[in-house]
Design a protein that fits this description.
The structure is a homodimer of 353-residue chains.
Chain A: H1 15-20, H2 41-47, H3 52-56, H4 59-73, E1 78-79, H5 86-90, E2 95-98, E3 102-105, H6 112-116, H7 127-140, E4 145-150, H8 152-161, H9 169-177, H10 179-202, E5 207-211, H11 220-237, E6 245-248, H12 256-261, E7 266-268, H13 275-282, E8 287-292, H14 301-315, E9 321-325, H15 335-347
Parallel strand pairs in A: 1-4, 4-5, 5-6, 6-7, 7-8, 8-9
Antiparallel strand pairs in A: 2-3
Helix pairs in contact in A: 4-7, 8-9, 8-10, 9-10, 10-11, 14-15
């Protein structure tokens, strides 16, 4: 088992958790969304011949894939290898993840009958997640494990559209046409998601990230009315467990304040909004996570380095900063670039003042 | 020939142009991006068996398709039926528009050799556009024709990626890795685009819209350094012709001020930013265009009506407002909904005060 415990013996609180909690970390913490995945040759080798959903349901595979980027890059946190549709599959939704397409739902959810089928989730529905987390915290030592779930809006979009969508038109039409059904749907998804995060924290996750991948398609008014109460319910469902809650979506410049107010301790920011401006929008009570443009990972190293330094500089305006990309690691990323970014970020730790 | 001249005989300036010029229009003007297209059965019938690029190169077809939504919806402006890759094809770039995919470039442009091949455009390269515009202004009478072109960044993205892209990673890498080549590429595209718009105005277009479809993928800093000077060059290239210049992109909340400062008379806004907030960002010197969420076109009429009224109300904060969607008409739109929106918008014309 490798030593992934990089903290100094005097530092009781890992850097990642300190930054989330707006305390000065002993080094600037960094992890990457989708760090466990296709950018790593060791991941591709392990996944060979195993479907995405199967791999998420095998605890030993989840553990190994989750550990791979921690060993390789020496990031400050692990993130559970999973997929946002895992809890839906676990409560019996007939779905598949089609390579090159994404989640495909056999019977899209568009009426009260289908919504009523979305039953609550318990730990018995996801024993493999529970088992994987318990083994991971042993292997990770002081490196925190981040639990992971898709937010109600993004899950609803997949269920209503039947799969990925460019414009989320059916989802938005349902939201506006049948408000009661919409709130019933999102209420059920919030309960499922809250329970799913709770399973992970109970099994040792020391933080959670609620991903609302597609919520940036909404105006702030629609978000506030139709989505925020349900994301808030998810975040409230784990509030008593005392772990930092990160909340992230893409293209959410107009929503950052509202996403923070939903109850996040850390707001994830994509690359479109400088962290200094995000600090202004989110306020002093929450840390920020982000936000290097993942498309820059293909550029020459001096370009990457300058961009990393800029993000670190802008992040110093926030009351806490966890370095990350502004979205997930692209599959064709050279993993050595990520390792080099981790080293650079650590070297740029602001001095306590 | 139908009478598409809806202006009162006393109104010298069509409502669309008045709003663009920040003068009080005699009615609130409305048109729809991609109004000429797949949402109309008469369009689908006409296009049957004709490829997209072929249809754009046949003046009689361009005229008919451009006229269809004007006749049907009685919108306040026509927009030339074309595609953003038409000028590239016209100067010899080997490309095709693949149904279901979009533009595909045979030899992606990634080196000085390929950039050097992007020669200037003259009216002799696009005689069908010249002819179509000349016939259209005859048929349209007082209804203005809007000329149309893709902006340098979006054209560059297609050329560099070789087709549509989710993350524009190759484009961004080139931009940062080889700044000189990037500026050479965008400079050439700006010259082509400026000339292409000039052809349309010379042939009778009374306004132009510069579409930067994908520019919302950039941070404001990257936009200001790598894109704005070239979009500004396009808009400056037709400044002496005195027609309103509309500039639009999707997901551009962080860029609205900069896009206005590039030299637009009208800034197009997607549905994510309320027009009242867009007015604050863009300032008092430019009109706004937008911004009904096109996904709402699938909702029940009372939902659509409430949303239209909200856009009209928020648009009253702008120094001029052209009603439109926040992006193009989705292909599966019921055209009757669009007609009804036109009637509603016209009925909501603010009283001169």
């Amino acid at each position: 088992m490798p030593d992934v415990q990089n903290e100094s013996p005097r530092a009781a609180e890992p850097a990642f958790l300190a930054a989330c909690n707006r305390r000065a970390p002993n080094r600037l913490p960094v992890w990457f969304m989708r760090q466990a995945g296709r950018s790593l040759p060791e991941y591709r080798a392990l996944r060979d011949g195993v479907t995405m959903l199967d791999s998420c349901a095998r605890p030993e595979m989840v553990v190994e894939i989750t550990m791979q980027p921690v060993r390789r890059h020496r990031v400050d946190a692990a993130v559970l290898y999973s997929d946002i549709v895992v809890p839906l599959k676990a409560i019996g939704v007939d779905l598949d993840i089609v390579p090159g397409t994404g989640p495909v739902i056999a019977d899209p959810v568009r009426s009260a009958r289908e919504v009523a089928r979305l039953r609550p989730l318990s730990v018995d529905d996801v024993p493999y997640v529970d088992a994987a987390c318990r083994e991971l915290v042993v292997q990770l030592g002081a490196t925190p494990l981040i639990g992971f779930a898709g937010a109600p809006f993004t899950l609803a979009s997949y269920l209503v559209e039947g799969g990925p969508s460019r414009d989320h038109a059916r989802t938005k039409a349902l939201m506006h046409d049948d408000t009661q059904l919409w709130h019933d749907l999102l209420g059920r998804l919030a309960a499922i998601t809250g329970a799913f995060l709770r399973v992970q924290i109970d099994a040792g996750a020391r933080a959670v990230q609620l991903f609302d991948s597609w919520v940036g398609t909404l105006s702030a008014a629609d978000y506030a009315e139709f989505v925020q109460p349900h994301s808030a319910a998810v975040l409230a469902a784990v509030a008593d467990l005392g772990v930092p809650r990160i909340h992230f979506g893409v293209g959410t410049g107009e929503l950052l304040a509202l996403m923070g107010e939903a109850g996040a301790d850390v707001v994830g920011v994509d690359w479109r909004v400088p962290l200094s401006e995000a600090t202004r929008r989110v306020g002093p009570e929450r840390a920020l996570q982000g936000n290097l443009d993942p498309a820059l990972l293909r550029a020459r190293w001096p370009v990457v380095e300058a961009a990393v330094r800029k993000v670190v500089r802008e992040g110093q305006t926030a009351p806490g900063h966890v370095f990350n990309l502004g979205h997930g690691v692209p599959p064709d990323t050279d993993p050595d670039v990520l390792t080099r970014i981790v080293e650079l970020v650590h070297s740029l730790t602001p001095r306590a003042g």
